[in-house]
């Protein structure tokens, strides 16, 4: 199923009125979302789904009558089922949630930045359904492993593995490497797309960082988070902090940081 | 022999000596603890001679006669716990049997005490997690911000939800350093709202230790302690620094405040669990770490009066059987 061109059509289901209001408010504020329909009990949710087409359903788990897990089970039997995201107060439900094919689960109260991550997964899921593996996607891990840079009229090549972090600078990006800073004409969002599978993560509107280059995570009284590399600190926006932590934890657990030659 | 439940130096030792003397029908009988402190019942003999004899038995760990005195060591657990001294004639077999009664009573008392302590530690672990003082301060601040700064109020409410979710979690015994750090950052964000400019914070963690398994809620009580004892009691601003890094095969986490500090002797008392109800957190964390990783992995507290306090947690980066 393709996401609707004017943004996602989302059904939000929760039997607690103010929780539903808040969930709808957060969904409407998200750029990926086009339209939000609210249902305050599982039966009217079913009626809505029968009458209309939704890209995604955000579903509370504990509801009277038919709980969220049962409702999701019913939905999964549809020929063209919407993507399910559970919203729950209890972490124990997570295992069940994934077991029946939900793409994500959100803990109540919901944070805007966590909701944004869930919507990214929804969009990815919907596009994967139509175009599972494009040739472009297969090539991507090797794309742009080396970037040409112009220095004083001469073309040099910068290896991706030498880049610690990337800073947006208008239509250009600044590549920070131990040999110096190189300017390349390319929007940071393009480079993010190319390098996402090579251990680079967008941690801020203006910054892309190599996970393996991070020496320390630092936070201070202002509450701001910094990723410290040997070439300087990279600011991490609140919106990206959680994903950075998750990716770093995953990298640590898979041994990325176990290299004994890794200096401080 | 319930009189000996607090050991040979406990308050019941004198009564135990009296009963034992009647039972053995001897003119005089004494019980000495490991330091040679003696309780005596009945006819008083030459006290210098008794002291010499007790000392001799404690050193040599064998029975010894010095007529009319006879002394025999009391074995409890895996070593000598004290000495039984009898004045007057007694059969050697009767003396041995009496010594073994005393040993049993001391042993049973020790076991009961340690079971008690374990139970208390568990209760304290449950109670130490959420400090009411902190909870109501945070809620008061949020209530006030709802009028003046609704966005911040909402943000802090979400932090508060994370804080309680983590503190109430009953998932397993272990979590990751990553989650523990996230929990203290959430806690410190709330504390900054409560204490304002008085609290300055620096948190630094190296990614290589993020995946290390660690018992639940080890860091939060230590950071709470740093705020409560290092920052809150004094006027002016204070700095709390938390760092986590790899040191060889260990993960070392340090929690430091530049606050009022304390006498190192007092820090030792607190770690030993004798610091009073105000500081159970530290002793509890110390005990849990030792329980999981062995006696070498207890807390290290570096402090002095007016010199701040640094608490160091050291856990192995890879420990069989310890999984988040």
From TrEMBL, chain A:
Q: Which residues form the Response regulatory domain?
A: 9-123
Recall the GO molecular function terms of this protein's record: DNA binding; phosphorelay response regulator activity
InterPro entries, sorted: CheY-like_superfamily (IPR011006), LytR-like (IPR046947), LytTR_DNA-bd_dom (IPR007492), Sig_transdc_resp-reg_receiver (IPR001789)
Q: Name positions with the PTM 4-aspartylphosphate.
A: 60
Q: Which PROSITE patterns match?
A: HTH_LYTTR, RESPONSE_REGULATORY
The HTH LytTR-type domain extends over 147-250
Q: Which domain of life is it from?
A: Bacteria
In its keyword annotation, does this UniProt entry include Transport? no
* Keywords recorded for this protein, A-Z: Phosphoprotein
Q: Does the record's keyword annotation contain Phosphoprotein?
A: yes
**PANTHER family registered for this protein in UniProt:** STAGE 0 SPORULATION PROTEIN A HOMOLOG, TRANSCRIPTIONAL REGULATOR-RELATED
What is the protein name for this chain?
Response regulator receiver
Please give the organism: Thermobifida fusca TM51
């Amino acid at each position: 199923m393709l996401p609707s061109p004017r943004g996602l059509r989302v059904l939000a289901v929760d039997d607690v009125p103010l929780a539903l209001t808040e969930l709808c408010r957060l969904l409407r504020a998200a750029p990926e979302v086009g339209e939000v329909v609210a249902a305050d009990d599982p039966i009217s949710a079913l009626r809505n789904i029968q009458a209309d087409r939704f890209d995604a359903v955000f579903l509370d788990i504990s509801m009277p009558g038919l709980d969220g897990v049962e409702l999701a089970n019913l939905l999964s039997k549809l020929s063209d089922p919407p993507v399910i995201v559970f919203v729950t107060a209890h972490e124990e439900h997570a295992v069940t949630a994934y077991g029946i094919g939900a793409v994500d689960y959100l803990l109540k109260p919901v944070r805007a930045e966590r909701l944004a991550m869930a919507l990214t997964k929804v969009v990815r899921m919907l596009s994967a359904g139509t175009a599972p593996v494009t040739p472009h996607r297969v090539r991507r891990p090797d794309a742009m492993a080396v970037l040409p840079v112009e220095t004083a009229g001469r073309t040099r090549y910068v290896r991706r593995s030498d880049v610690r972090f990337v800073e947006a600078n208008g239509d250009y990006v600044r590549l920070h490497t131990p040999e110096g800073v190189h300017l390349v004409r390319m929007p940071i969002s393009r480079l993010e797309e190319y390098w996402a599978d090579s251990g680079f993560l967008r941690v801020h509107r203006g910054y892309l960082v190599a996970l393996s280059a991070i020496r320390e995570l630092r936070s201070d009284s202002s509450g701001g988070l910094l990723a410290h590399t040997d070439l300087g600190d990279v600011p991490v926006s609140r919106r990206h902090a959680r994903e950075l932590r998750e990716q770093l934890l995953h990298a640590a657990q898979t041994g990325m940081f176990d290299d004994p030659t890794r200096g401080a | 022999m319930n009189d000996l439940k607090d050991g040979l130096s406990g308050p019941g030792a004198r009564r135990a000596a009296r009963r034992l003397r009647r039972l053995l029908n001897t003119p005089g009988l004494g019980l000495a603890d490991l330091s040679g402190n003696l309780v005596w019942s009945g006819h008083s003999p030459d006290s210098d001679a008794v002291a010499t004899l007790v000392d001799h038995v404690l050193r040599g760990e064998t029975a010894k006669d010095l007529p009319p005195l006879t002394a025999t060591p009391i074995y409890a657990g895996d070593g000598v716990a004290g000495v039984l001294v009898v004045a007057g004639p007694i059969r050697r077999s009767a003396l041995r049997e009496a010594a073994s009664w005393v040993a049993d009573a001391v042993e049973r008392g020790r076991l009961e005490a340690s079971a008690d302590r374990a139970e208390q530690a568990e209760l304290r672990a449950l109670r130490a997690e959420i400090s009411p003082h902190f909870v109501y301060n945070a809620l008061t601040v949020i209530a006030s911000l709802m009028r003046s700064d609704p966005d911040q109020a909402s943000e802090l409410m979400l932090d508060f939800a994370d804080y309680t979710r983590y503190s109430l979690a009953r998932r397993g015994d272990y979590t990751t350093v990553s989650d523990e750090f996230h929990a203290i950052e959430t806690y410190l964000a709330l504390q900054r709202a409560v204490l304002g400019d008085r609290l300055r914070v620096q948190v630094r963690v190296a990614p290589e230790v993020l995946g290390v398994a660690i018992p639940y809620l080890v860091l939060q009580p230590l950071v709470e302690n740093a705020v409560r004892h290092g920052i809150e009691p004094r006027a002016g601003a204070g700095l709390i620094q938390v760092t986590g890094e790899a040191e060889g095969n260990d993960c070392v986490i340090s929690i430091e405040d530049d606050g009022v500090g304390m006498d190192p002797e007092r820090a030792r008392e607190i770690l030993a669990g004798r610091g009073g109800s105000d500081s159970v957190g530290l002793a509890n964390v110390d005990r849990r770490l030792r329980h999981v990783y062995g006696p070498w992995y207890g807390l290290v507290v570096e402090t002095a009066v007016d010199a701040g306090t640094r608490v160091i947690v050291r856990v192995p980066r890879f420990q069989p059987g310890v999984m988040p």
